[in-house]
Design goal:
Helices cover about 40% and strands about 30% of the residues. By secondary structure, it is of the alpha/beta class.
Length: about 400
């Protein structure tokens, strides 16, 4: 039976949202009704097969197979419905990003025009294509594809403005966020989506920007914050200062660091290690069992904290660190990492009062409805909020 009625109320629209992370892939169908919260009417998430030692080409093949499996199940659940737009959100390591700060000065006032700003942006994109970050985003000698070119903020004479056109200024500043992915990844994902659904467009975004934009909208007035995504293989930390996503740092450690530690300590395969970790974090199992698991998890977490501390120190050398940290993590390990971060904040070498806020379903339920309250997915929910905003811009 299809999830969708043949006759739709006036203004109702359906979109698909895909979350491509380092440990799993999620997909959802979303119903958009005028004046209502976006509603996730179907969602699915499948783990990418675990690798004891990550080898990128095998990892990429595993991601593609998992993506195909998710698409098959979603198509069956959707009953062949026509999706108007598809939104594909990539997490590390499937993309790289950089924020470029553009300045244009003149001794005499000049008129700011849409055409003039566009020329500045095009020039900056060409300069970006000459960077090492862009060239490192190649696989098999394919040209990387820029998936985002977001004008985050414009300032005239040092002051942020939302409508800069046809105004005079002596100094123009633009914060331009760019993200890039290998072309074979981009083309492969897009071809797979269009093979299963006929859509008007397939929109690609990075999870760091998606979360940044969502935080900025939900917590209006919170311009200075850190956002941290603790995924399976990678942790991303992004800095927002004065409403601009200035810098992002990634390090190759996430939830799977804990899994591998348990595999080694208990000499068990990945599935058993994941089960053992879940039992411990849920407070189940014997005392003796808990002590063994805790030792392994603590050692692995301390290794992760070294990466985390180094990233924070690196950011703190260039910019004052904000006191608010928003973070995402799989629900089973979110509390564990929160406790670890809180206990180790003093390792930064100075007194700081950080506030950690999890972008979980408890918070997001005020912004996204779900037809299955017992199976909410905060990653897809963040991306649904973002997709709804883009849909409103498309319709405008």
């Amino acid at each position: 039976m299809s999830l969708f009625k043949k006759k739709r109320p006036l203004g109702q629209r359906f979109i698909a949202v895909f979350d491509i992370a380092s440990a799993s892939i999620g997909g959802s169908f979303v119903r958009l009704d005028p004046g209502e919260l976006p509603e996730i009417i179907f969602s699915i998430r499948e783990d990418i097969p675990f690798q004891e030692k990550v080898q990128f080409n095998r990892f990429l093949d595993a991601m593609r197979r998992t993506l195909e499996s998710v698409f098959v199940k979603m198509q069956k659940a959707g009953g062949g419905v026509a999706i108007e737009e598809a939104f594909c959100i990539l997490s590390s390591p499937w993309y790289a990003s950089q924020t470029r700060l553009i300045q244009y000065r003149r001794p005499e006032p000049f008129l700011v025009t849409r055409k003039g700003i566009q020329r500045l942006l095009e020039k900056e994109i060409e300069l970006f294509k000459q960077t090492k970050l862009f060239s490192r985003s190649r696989i098999d000698n394919t040209t990387p594809t820029i998936i985002e070119s977001k004008n985050i903020q414009i300032k005239l004479n040092g002051y942020p403005v939302t409508l800069p056109y046809n105004k005079e200024a002596r100094m123009l500043e633009i914060a331009l966020y760019l993200s890039v992915t290998p072309s074979n990844i981009y083309d492969g994902i897009k071809e797979s989506i269009t093979k299963f659904w006929r859509t008007n467009s397939v929109h690609f975004s990075s999870f760091s920007f998606t979360a940044f934009d969502t935080v900025r909208d939900i917590f209006a007035g919170t311009d200075n914050f850190l956002f941290m995504d603790i995924s399976g293989e990678v942790t991303d930390i992004s800095l927002s200062r004065q409403g601009v996503l200035l810098e992002s740092i990634s390090f190759p450690a996430g939830k799977h660091v804990l899994v591998r530690a348990l595999m080694n300590a208990m000499n068990v395969p990945p599935a058993v290690a994941i089960s053992e970790m879940s039992l411990y974090l849920e407070g189940k199992g014997t005392k003796n069992h808990g002590e063994k698991v805790q030792v392994a998890l603590t050692e692995a977490t301390n290794e992760w904290l070294v990466f985390f501390r180094d990233a924070m120190v690196q950011m703190g050398q260039e910019f004052p660190l904000p006191k608010t940290i928003f973070y995402t993590a799989d629900e089973e390990v979110a509390r564990w990492y929160r406790q670890a971060i809180t206990e180790k904040m003093d390792s930064l070498g100075e007194e700081r009062s950080f506030e950690l806020k999890q972008l979980g379903s408890e918070l997001l339920k005020n912004y996204v409805a779900s037809s299955d309250e017992g199976n909410r997915d905060p990653f897809l929910e963040i991306e649904t909020i973002f997709a709804k905003k883009l849909m409103s811009l498309i319709a405008a």
